[in-house]
Amino acid sequence: MHAKGLTTIIFLLVLTVCGFSQAPERCGTTRYETLQQQLNPNRERSQQFENWMLQKLITRRFQNQRTTSATYTIPVVVHIIHNGEPIGTGTNISDNQVLSQIS
Predict the structure, then answer these.
(1) What's the rounded Cα separation, in Å, for the pair 66 and 93?
(2) How distant is the alpha carbon of residue 64 from its chain centre?
(3) Predicted pLDDT of residue 42
(4) Phi then psi dihedrals of residue 49, to 5 deg
(5) Can you give the pLDDT at residue 93?
(6) Which of 15, 27, 72, 100 is 20 to 30 A from 94 in CA distance terms?
(7) Confidence band, pLDDT 50/70/90 cuts, at residue 18
């Protein structure tokens, strides 16, 4: 290969690496929000939404503190994988052992 051809290849590689080394924008949210605000100036800003959401959370927490606790029943299915031993021996654990672990 000629020195001129090798120089050209090295130049193109350096140019390619430099082009990719600039960090691309990872998230377009900021640009999108700016565009949406320009298209609709009356649109609620992110900080306004965050403040509104914070008030909702505070209200919800206050309401939850005043209510009595309820009991919920959650259906549970347990699959016991064993080697064919009788119930309660080896890896074939008993129902009582399962219930004690759930409790």
Answers:
(1) 42
(2) 26
(3) 82
(4) -65, -45
(5) 93
(6) 72
(7) low
* Tokens of residue 20, six digits: 């990719």
Q: Which two tokens stand for residue 39?
A: 């298209």
How far apart CA 46 and CA 72 sit, in angstroms, is 37
The rounded distance, in Å, linking the Cα atoms of 89 and 91 is 6
Taking the C-alpha atoms of residue 103 and residue 74, their distance in angstroms, rounded to an integer, is 12
- Picking from 82, 85, 71, 79, the residue whose alpha carbon sits closest to that of residue 98 is 79
Q: How far is CA 68 from CA 60, 65, 74, 103, in A?
A: 14, 8, 19, 22
pTM value is 0.32
Among the listed residues 98, 82, 80, the one whose alpha carbon sits nearest the alpha carbon of residue 90: 82
Structure tokens at 50: 């965050």
